[in-house]
C-alpha cells in the first residue's frame, strides 16, 4: 500500500527546489499531486487515463513524447510505465524533471531500475542528476535532473 502522504511530501519537495510555474504531472492517477501542487500556487496538468478524477486540469490520455510542451517542469509520482518517457520528454525540451519511481517498465528490480534511470538521464545530457529521500513508507526516493542550478 503506497503512503497516503506521498503527494503532499512530493509537492513540498518540488516547490522547495524548483521555481517552475507550470508543471506536467504524468501518470497522476486521480490528480492528488496536482491538487497538492495547485494549493502551493503551481499551474498543473495531470496526464492519466482515469475516468474518475478530482476537479483538476486533467488530460485524460496517455502521455507521449509528442505532447506539445506547455510546461516548465515534468514530474511523476510512482509513474510505472511512464517513468522513462518523463525523463526523455524533459530532455527533449530541456526541462527539469522529478520522479518517484516505483515499478519498472521491464521487470527490472527497484535498485537497478533507479540506477538505469539515472544513467539514462545522464546519457540524455542532464548535467545534474541526483536522488533525495522523502520521509515516507514504500518507494520514497525522488530522482531528479536539471540543466542548471536553478532548475
Ligand atoms: C501506480 S499508478 C500511480 C498513480 C498516482 N501517481 C499515485 O501515486 O497514486 C501508475 C499510473 O500510471 C499511469 N500511466 C502509465 N503509463 C502512462 C502514460 N504513458 N501516460 C499517462 N499515464 C500513465 C496508469 O494509468 C496509472 O494510473
Task: Write up this protein.
This protein is α/β, with parallel strands linked by helices and 151 residues long. It has a single domain, classed as Vaccinia Virus protein VP39 (Rossmann fold, 3-Layer(aba) Sandwich). It contains 4 helices and 7 strands. A hairpin with a 7-residue loop joins strand 6 and strand 7 (141-146). 39% of the residues are buried. Bound molecules: S-adenosylmethionine. Residues 2, 26-29, 47-49, 62-63, 77-82, 85, 102 line the site of S-adenosylmethionine (SAM).
Helix content: 25-40%
Instruction: Please state the second-level CATH architecture.
Output: 3-Layer(aba) Sandwich
Bound ligands, each once:
S-adenosylmethionine
CATH homologous superfamily grouping: Vaccinia Virus protein VP39
Question: Which outline best applies?
Answer: globular
Count of separate structural domains = 1
Strand portion: 15-25%
Low-confidence spans: pLDDT under 50, at least 5 residues? Answer: none
Write the element-wise H/E pattern from the N-terminal end onward: HEHEEEHEHEE
Number of distinct helices: 4
Which fold name is given in CATH as the topology? Rossmann fold
How many strand units?
A: 7
**Mind summarizing the main beta sheet?**
7 strands, mixed
Strand order of the largest sheet: 3-2-1-4-5-7-6
Span of the ends, CA to CA: 31 Å
Classify the secondary structure makeup into a structural class: alpha/beta
Average pLDDT taken over every residue: 96
Radius of gyration: 14 Å
The level 1 CATH classification is Alpha Beta
Amino acid at each position: 500500500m503506497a503512503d497516503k502522504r506521498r503527494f503532499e511530501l512530493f509537492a513540498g519537495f518540488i516547490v522547495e527546489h524548483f521555481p517552475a510555474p507550470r508543471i506536467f504531472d504524468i501518470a497522476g492517477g486521480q490528480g492528488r499531486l496536482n491538487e497538492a501542487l495547485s494549493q502551493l500556487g503551481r499551474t498543473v496538468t495531470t496526464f492519466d487515463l482515469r475516468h474518475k478524477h478530482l476537479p483538476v486540469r486533467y488530460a485524460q490520455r496517455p502521455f507521449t513524447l509528442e505532447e506539445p510542451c506547455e510546461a516548465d517542469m515534468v514530474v511523476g509520482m510512482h509513474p510505472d510505465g511512464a517513468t522513462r518517457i518523463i525523463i526523455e520528454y524533459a530532455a527533449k525540451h530541456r526541462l527539469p524533471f522529478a520522479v518517484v519511481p516505483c515499478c519498472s517498465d521491464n521487470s527490472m528490480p527497484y535498485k537497478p531500475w533507479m540506477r538505469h534511470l539515472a544513467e539514462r538521464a545522464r546519457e540524455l545530457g542532464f548535467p545534474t542528476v541526483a536522488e533525495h529521500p522523502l520521509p515516507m513508507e514504500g518507494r520514497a526516493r525522488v530522482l531528479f535532473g536539471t540543466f542548471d542550478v536553478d532548475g
